[in-house]
Structures are given as C-alpha cells and as structure tokens.
Amino acid sequence: MTTTGLGSVPGDDIRAWMRAVLDVVDIPFLPELPARPYGDMVSRSVGVLTELAADLQPAGWRLTGGGDARASLDQRRARALLQEDLDVLEEYADGYAGPLKVQVTGPWTLAATVERPRGDKVLADYGARRDLAQALAYGVEQHLAEVRKRVPGADVVLQVDEPALPAVLAGAVPTASGWGKHRSVDGPGAVELLSLFTAGGPTVVHCCAARPPIEVFTKAGATGVAVDTSLLNKAGWEQLAVAAEAGSTLYTGVLPTTGDLPKAEQAAEPLIRRWRDLGLDPGLLKQIVVTPACGLATAPSPADARARLKLLRDIADVLGEAADA
User: Fold this and answer.
1) CA-CA distance, 261 to 255, in Å (whole number)?
2) Is residue 255 over pLDDT 80?
3) What pLDDT score does 68 carry?
4) Sign of CA dihedral 91, 3, 248, 255
5) 302-324 vs 14-24: helix axis angle to the nearest 10?
C-alpha cells in the first residue's frame, strides 16, 4: 500500500517541494505550484502544446493557431517555467529509481477551459477539440520522454486531470455568453479522446469533482482512477468497486485538504466501512494508493500541506491492517 499527492501544492518554492515529495511520499510527483505565474495546471498543459500556439487573455488561454503559428510570450513563459521545474527535478532526483508521477490537464478539461481563436470554448467544435486532444497527446508523449531522459531510473506514471469531465458529460459547461450550455458529450466520445493518453504506460485519471465517471476512465484504458471518496454517491462507489475487482489501482482521496488534521484512524474509517458494506475482498485494499482528497494548493501553508502528505503513511498503515484482518 502506497501514498502520493495529486499535484498542486501551496507556496512558490519548487526546490523545497521537490525535496519534500522525494522524501515524504512513496510515489514522488512533479509538484505544481499555481501560486506562481504560469504554474497552474492549465498553463502547464498549454506549455506542453508544442504543435499549437496560444496566448493568455483576461478570460484565460486562447488558441491562436497551429503548425508554424508563433507561440505567444505567455506560452513561451509557461514552457520556460516547466523546463525550469524539470531542471530541479533532474537535480534532486539524481540517482532515483522507482515510480515517478507527472500530471497533465486532460483533453476534456482543457477543451472546456481554452477558447478557440474566434471565441467560445474549444469544446463547442468537434474538430477543434479533437485537434487539441491530438496535439496534447503528442506534447505529453514528448514531455514524458524528457522526464525519462532526465531521470533514467524512473518508472513514469501519467496522471490525467479531468475535473471538468462530469460537467462536459452532463452538458453543464456554460457558453461564452453565459446564457446557454455546451452540448453534452456521450460516454463513447469521452472514452475516444481519453484513450489517446493511456497507451504509453501506467495512467491514472483523476477527477475530484462529484460524480466522477469512473467507468469512462476504465473503458479508456486507464490503469488507475483517482477520486475524492467523500463525494462518491452510491453509483460512484459501485463503479469504484467494479474497477477494484477488475484490477485497477485506486487512488483514494481520503484526507481532507483543509481544516484540522484528523487522526489516521478517523480518515481511514469511512473507506474501510464502505469497503465492507460493498462486500469487497479486504485484500483488495492493498491495491489502494492513499492520497489527499484533491490537490493541496488550497492548504493554508506549505507546512500544513507537508503535514498532510506525511499523515498519508499513517492512514496507509491503518488500511493495511484492515486488508490483513
């Protein structure tokens, strides 16, 4: 049974966080520090888009062209920041061997966030969202290759963040005017684009929104799913149980990202109780990776966030005892 974080952390000291994640959790990850300019999850992924150009507008990122289109100053800055973080990773992970997780904003969340050159979200245009997904998949492939080159001993795990996918499937993403909603996407369509990211190695799809479409993630070929277990309804738990019995790695967000730190037993108990209610084999708990409920960027301080990551080990020990009971 292992532990990891989900990507975002508070503060602006990438070196301190790189040391922390290599020391505190079982699966180190490339930290995202959204408090820095161009350090948020969407800017990171725009920086990975080497085949598409984009610029940053007051309303957010907007595509400006593809192919030979020139990247804007903002996009070049996003790329430069990512390269600087990879430099720090290479320095601190020198000699490291083992799993290493890298996060990227997924194609559906990116399409629901980034605008087309002439306005409105990429999500509105079938062809545009496919082009964006393909360009992102290519950029991610190059990005992961660079991570492997810089840390040769790493077994790289890709985390695809899809917080907006439930709204995309429900037809709940607002149009630019705010008066309407974008047309919903069906399950097979969602699977089709997500599957572009699951063929290159271990992949976990993360969604800490309510009603995460776990079945979509597994049908797309993800080897793991990451969810906030406190938000799951009955159907969500049933989908999680099916994924567990099919051999998926479950990244269970059992630790709140804010508020008082709970005792390890207190954080683990709801998952253990639900596991028993579902009649799942206790031994399947050993497939679990214990995580915070979501990213830790909203934690009140870096010290608080580090304390939460350290607490994950104690929670994992409690779950391990339940697995052996």
Assistant:
1) 8
2) yes
3) 54
4) negative
5) 20
The predicted structure's pLDDT at residue 325: 75
Q: CB of 292 within 8 A of CB of 308?
A: yes
The pTM score is 0.96
C-alpha distance from residue 269 to each of 3, 88, 132, 252, 306 (Å): 17, 38, 42, 13, 22
Burial class (CB in 10 A: 0-12, 13-18, 19+), 100: buried
Q: Which residue has the tokens 């391990």?
A: 320
Block residue for tokens 């994992």:
316
